[in-house]
Each structure stands twice: as structure tokens, then as C-alpha cells.
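Batch manifest line 356
LIGAND: S-adenosyl-L-homocysteine
JOB: complex structure
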Amino acid sequence: MQNEKEIGLKTDIKSLYPEELAEKLGEMGEPKFRASQVFGWLWKGVTSFDEMKNVPKALRERLGEEFFITHPAVLRKQESRLDGTVKYLWELADGNAVETVVMRYNHGNTVCVSSQVGCRMGCAFCASTIGGRVRSLAPSEILDQVMFSELESGLKISNIVMMGIGEPLDNFENVIRFLRLVNDPNGLNIGMRHISLSTCGLTEGIDKLAEYNLQLTLSVSLHAPDDETRTRIMPVNRAYGVQKLMAACRRYYEKTGRRISFEYAMIDGVNDTPEHAERLAGLIGGMGAHVNLIPLNEVEESPLKPSTPEHLKAFIALLEKRGVNVTVRRKLGPDINASCGQLRRKREKEKSLQSG
Ligand code: SAH
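JOB STATUS: finished
ARTIFACT:
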């Protein structure tokens, strides 16, 4: 584990854009090519400046005085015997933990990253929000999840989904920085069209994101088509409401030309009736949107249950009849409880048992 106090005085080098690093090195009197050398090493996953073999020793020492290199440590690794899904629980420099999942699809390996330690959005069905939000992640700490998952698993990552622990739009600036860094041709060079960002629906954030006009896929966790149902399971709905959220989604679609994907966790007796399906179809019409139904993953602390297969089937049939483009999310890693937030939650519980 890195020394937190020492880190406080130094600059987080992996959160800098290449041009910012070049500027800092220029101020230190270094030639231009040094920045790309250092940047290259960082993307190889070095954890100390000493490993940067083609950088002169004196400079390596100075770099170590000015900057620090983040690197997570594997606390736990679980691998599904059924489909090869790998889940990591990482320990960060300050002792906090976040989860990352690597999923293997035919179209390439996809990594699901966390954007915060915990979450303050309070969704009733979600394990990540139970202990609230501890802090947001730095751009480097989000990037590390992609880099070190790739290094650790040996699997080449081609897609990223921001669907792990945390609300990405509640950590806006750092998430934008992460997206630009991971997209950098000299870095991992992952195209925006290979990246999805999922939000519980912070409308100011959606509007701000539209301004950047990134070609990523925006997923919106809708989970209910009316205020009464949505507020019951997503407290964030009190602040925005379904109509306001849909208006922001329409603006986003108009501005970026990118179709939105709506996530809808099917919860028994809560949001899965034929009326809900009808309302949902009415709500999202006319924007080429896609609905991704998620069979609810049961969370120990929550009484909510997944919809029955019959209700799920009827819901799909109704949406299809109304011309809605609908898919059902395949459950990956069922033997390792791969849905996010659960592994970190388990560690938190163990820690409190030990100290109590
Ligand atoms: N904060 C973001 C991203 C994190 S969660 C968001 O809200 O979109 C990624 C997706 O998983 C969201 O759609 C979320 O609502 C959903 N989710 C969370 N807990 C779940 C559970 N127990 N079962 C099914 N889906 C869940």
C-alpha cells in the first residue's frame, strides 16, 4: 500500500493528459520526447519510476519527488467456471476497495469499471449504495481498473462499460478525464463507440455530457416509467422526475445523434406489470431507443425479488408489440456473484465484524 501522507504532496501523474505532463516536464527543463517516454511506461503498467529504464536516473529521482504512480493491489480475484467472467476486488492507496469485472463476449472482452467508492444515489435494489459514498475515484484509479485487469487477466480489453460501483455523472470531471485518457491513441486507444456510460439519470450531468458530444453509448437506468413507481425504488427521482429525465434524454439524442439505451431491472410486483410495459413503450417512443431488461440480481439486504419468467415474457411481448427494440441482459458469472457492489459489501461487513 502506498503512503497516503506522502501522496498528498505530490501530483497524480497518471491523471494528467499527455500535454499536461509535457508541460510539467518542460518546466523541469526536460526535452519534449521525455513526456512520451514516461507516458509509454505508465501505459505499460509500471508501478515505480525506477522501472523507466530509458529515463536517466537523476530524472527518475526527481520524478519520484514530484509525482506518484497509482496502482491497485488485488484483494480478491474470482473467476467463473461457467463463462470465464473474472471479478477483481482492488485495494486503493488509501485502503478503500472497488470492484471491476471482466466479461468475455463474442464481440470482445468487456471491462466493467467503478467510478466511486460506494454511491450516494440510494437505489433500493443496489448493493453499491448500502454504505453510502465514501469518495470519488481519480481518473488514474478508473484507468488502473482497465489497465491492471488487462495485465492481471492476460485478456485484451476492447470494450468498457461504466456500470460498476458509483454514479459516473456524480464524478463528472474525473470521468471525462478518464474517458479522454483511455481514448488517447498513445494510451489504450479504446474508441468511444466501444464505451458505455450508465447513469441513474442526473439531468444536469446528461446535458453537460451532451456538450462534449462524445460518441459513447449513454445508458440510462430508468427502471420505471412513472414517478410513483420510480420514486419508490430510486430516491434520485424526487429531484428530477421521469418527464424531466426524458426531456434531457431527448436533448442528448438530438445533440449527439446517439441512441440511448434504457436499463430496466425487472422487479417482482414493483415495475413488471402489463401497465408498466405500456407506459414504458409510450414514454420512449420516437427516439430509436433500446430497452435492456435486467433480471434483478438479489441483494441480501433487500427484500426485492426478480420478476417471474412468465411476467418477464409477457413484458417483452408487450414491448415488442409496440415496436420497442428490447433485449434481456444475459447473466454472466452467476457462480461468482458478479453483479457489482456485492464483493466490496462483503469485505465491509467482514471488516466491521473484525473491529466490532
Ligand atoms: N450509477 C449508474 C451505474 C451503476 S449500476 C447507474 O445507476 O446507472 C449499473 C446498472 O445496474 C444500473 O442500471 C443499475 O440500476 C443496475 N443494478 C444495480 N443493482 C442491480 C441489481 N441488484 N439487479 C439488477 N440491476 C442492478
